[in-house]
Amino acid sequence: MYARAFVRPLIVATALSLGGFAWAADVYVPDVYVPSNEAYPQPAQAFSWTGIHLGVGGGIQFDGADGYASVYDGFYNFFDETSGHLTGTAWFATLDAGVDFQVQSFVVGLLANYDWHPSPATDQISSTDVDLNVTWGDSWAVGARAGWLFSPSTLFYVSGGYAQKNITAYSEHDVDGGSGYTGPLTAGGWQPGWFAGIGIETLLSQHVSAKLEYRYGVYSGFSTEDFCTGGICDSGDHRTLDVGPTTSQTIRAVLSWRL
Question: What pLDDT is stored for residue 72 in this prediction?
């Protein structure tokens, strides 16, 4: 009797245990990944345009302005003048700097540059007794730009700001009935102006970019006059020089290092 009472619970427990193992065999247990000693590959980080950039480059400029010069010889009572449109073309090297801020697919920034001309652009207009010469030299600009990212690595933008350009002129005037030239009458210097541009910039690597930009600028004109005295001048001799506003078009290419 006692043996029978002991065996029955043992049979029930054994049956439940076997049933539990059978149920457990049907349950999926995921494999446990044991990392190796190799480092995990890091996901590529998206590039941000936010930051400072410094660049060098060069380009070509096309300048133009209306000019006028005149002379009046008081002793011989004759008058002569010259006028016309002067143009010049020259290559330049440029230093470029700026800072950008990216907001989603848009980029805004500040910029500055200095353009150096190894050989300034020049032009001359002449008449019988008057020569007018104009030279367009170095320039600098500060401003801002705003653009849209056509792709994460390509930016289309517009730019604009304040600029100055070194524009000088001199004229020579024949007096005393055409017997001799006076010393030149000079004017000009750094002329204030503005510029507007459009460009494209693309990333060559995380820290290097290249851009191509077209700019249109306008700079103030200047004038001067004097009543020639001394030397071969006579009382009443009068000279004038006038250069109108300069329009300047530049095409520039810049390679930048992005910090």
Answer: 86
Instruction: Give φ, ψ of 22 to 5 degrees.
Output: -65, -40
d(CA 191, CA 165): 5
CA-to-CA distance for 254 and 145, rounded, in angstroms? 15
E strands, the chain, where?
Answer: 51-73, 78-103, 106-116, 121-126, 130-151, 154-175, 180-181, 185-203, 208-219, 222-227, 238-243, 246-258
Q: How far apart are CA 173 and CA 165, in angstroms?
A: 26
Q: Closest Cα to residue 128, out of 172, 80, 199, 164?
A: 80
Q: What is the pLDDT of residue 182?
A: 63
Amino acid at 236: G
The listed CATH number (2.40.160, 2.60.40, 1.10.3470, 1.10.287) that belongs to domain 51-258: 2.40.160
Q: Three-state SS for 152?
A: coil
pLDDT of 113-145, one tens digit each? Answer: 999 999 999 999 999 889 999 999 999 999 999
State the distance between the two ends of the chain, measured CA to CA, in whole angstroms. Answer: 93
Residue found by looking up tokens 């910029």 in the block = 111
Q: Record the pTM.
A: 0.78
pLDDT-based confidence at residue 15 (cuts at 50, 70, 90):
very low
Q: What is the DSSP letter of 89?
A: E
